[in-house]
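#data-curation
PF: Archiving a pair of folding outputs for the training set. Convention for this channel: one message per protein, sequence first, structure tokens after, nothing in between. First:
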Amino acid sequence: MLAATKALPHDRAPGPIADVPTAALALGGDYRALGVVRSLGRRGVPIWVLASGDDRIAAFSRYTAGTTEWPEEDDERLDLLERLAIRNQHRLALFPSSDEAAVFVARHHRTLAPTFSLTTPPWEVLRWAYDKRRTHELAVAAGVEQPWTICPRDRSDLERSDLRFPLVLKPAVKPVFNRFTAAKAWRADDRASLLQLYDEACTLVDPRVLMVQELIEGDGGAQLSYAALADSGRVLHSLVARRTRQYPADFGRASTFVETITDPGVEEPSRRLITASDFTGLLEIEYKVRSSDGRPLLLDINPRVWGWHTLCGRAGVDFPWLLWLRLQRIDTPACEARPGVRWLRISTDLPTAVKEIARGRMPVRQYVASLLSAHESAIFARDDIWPGLIELPLLARTLIRRIAWRKGI
């Protein structure tokens, strides 16, 4: 297994723990964590990485002070964090880079809060974003528009429902990785195909977490996001972006090409959601614009750093750093995002673009122009080259493992 050469300083003598953090800990080693490492590390903040599985690209950053393994079980994770708190001279701020890590911190908020500086709200707040069924309830309460949605109790309930096609079948939560949760959503164009997909999904997840939702047609130009740093439901800093391309193209697990824009149409409903949930921390709210009336409809809320958050720093709103200043009880500077700033992850964007070009849905000239435009790279950085060099080998290893997993090897 590839691993960084440095380790977390388990052998330091205990020191005084202040009520503000003096270092940070990324819970995860993926490219989202890499962005946090660079944001804080470039400003001299010591930051360590807890990596697991194939997600460890952040471990190779020159700004990573050290890396150790992030266990799978909650009890083991709590034990590890307790040892770090006892043996480390720093008070650590925890930055989860995945939904699962954010859920861990949220569920153990009372246990962790006395010793660590937390960037994640407690479970009673986070659950409104993590569980899409609760997100749907939150949107209804806040008066925010969303696609037509039902949560069938069972197959017979679905059979009796008055359905509007095309639809998507998706899980409200994704605690396990399989072909359904990896796909994010399955499309159904008629009742027979929906019932068939429902039966298959029931073999992969608990039927109670299944949602059926109206499919909002449209390309990347219709995919918008509102990113924010909030404190007890009050927005402190924000930014709007268009998620122009994603991988896979139809129901993307991750954005591949993103541009900052100005769009007041998503700001007002986003602020209502944040106020209604009383959220504190970083979050990204995803919308898709309905072509018939141009209205943005709520899709998801990501209650942690998102894939393209490094774009925000280039645009003038460096969210991890601003959050760090809040943890230091320092007033954050006024900042406003510049529109027209772009972000690209070429390793996943290129395969997406090739398929879209082959389908006739994207002109070659348009794609080449986007590549040649000035942009923030998701992985490559001139002052931190190793993650860019190691990304393809790590992706290749992940792909080989997934192919073997699907074949049962």
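PF: Second:
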Amino acid sequence: MDSRYFRLLTLFLMLTPCVGEAQTESARIYVRQIHFKGVTRINDNVLRRELLQLEGTYLNTTALEQSRLQLEQLAYIERVAVSFEPVENVRDQVDIVITITEAPARRYGGGGAYSESQRGSLNGYFTNENIFGTGQRFSARVDGSEFRNVAELSHTDPYVRSDRVSRTVTVSSRQSDKFTADTTELEADLATARLEYGFRIGESQAISLGLALHGVDLTTGALVSDQFIDWVGNNGNPSLQGTVVSTDFLVAELRLRWRQDTRNKLVFPDSGVQQSLTFRAAVPGSEVEYYAVDYGLTKYWPLNGRWTARFGANLGFGAKYGSDTTSLPPYLNWFAGGPNSVRGYRENRLGPRDSLGNPYGGNLFVSGQFELMMPLPETWTERMRIGFFYDLGNVFSTESVSFLDDGGQSLDYDFEFSRLRQSAGIAAQILLPIGVLRLSYGVPLNAEDDHPNRFLRDDIERFQITVGVDF
């Protein structure tokens, strides 16, 4: 029996009327006061708003336990212990004492990552999860690589209203020379201000609703594809200086997101579901008008007590609307191939190719992954996973974007089931002190790596590695 409930049961027996006394109903124990101990940096109301067990009501062990769990979920609390104190000369009342072990609220550091498409990157961050004891969060982040720089400031008030509605204000700047290491150069400057409200549904679900204002500048490079010239020259407020085409535009974007997370662990879970659905759309009257929907699902479940199965699926679709926009902005396109979609194919190289033969991405993305992770010695399970996988997916273009091969023949990148690329192989994830190392060896099952048309040829890359580093 849990020690918390053992103490509660003992107290209950102490307060229950003696055997032989007349009783018409079970005695109830009432909570007179709730006290917090060990608190030095957290305001009292920040703790009390997490409580489901209230003062002046009868003792509810379920609500008390849920209150303890909610307190422990706060980033600035390490541990919570609950005890009881009888009220002198009162037989049916107790005081609850909640002892808090605080965790550091301020975190700072940096890290890095490597993948084939994004190459190496470095980042730094500072976060205060409990500004002035209010439970509000402030964060600053910078991220840089050889072709992309990002800076972001964010503030979150988790209780902007008493009914647990959160509000987040974010400003960010993103500058890039290209979208991935293999795409054609396109200079993109995006400045964003976003206001978002979050609503919690139970303990595992949340909905957020927000409005973002984007200021976008796009400029073609020295070697530019026909597709980029066409989009930049026909959307927003285009201009031409010599051979360089550029455009700028403002977009007010509405965003709605639903999330669910029932995983039993954040790192290497073996049961539960994580899924999200995001809808974003430019508000009518914006200088570029579009919408996009993105759905992601990951499900874990144990098999035969030791094996773990994982199924993942990702679906994305976006398109323009209105007569003044030709297609989805290219910086919103999806890419396919590699560790996050179809292993065994070169990262982000599947799907439509621009006039230079480089990946252009697409407005329709389909991906599915199934993994069967083998049992390992108990001492390894928290730090390593090894298993077999089957992947399928691709990215497609269903809008009126023109693609031509070297001979001037029109290319069709519309969706067909036969174009869903497949692979199978073995993969490993290793949790290192500096981050997670992901390795995979995939064998393409229906690749067209010898297609005579280079614009329809698949790029194979059987061994792949990605790594995330924190320091």
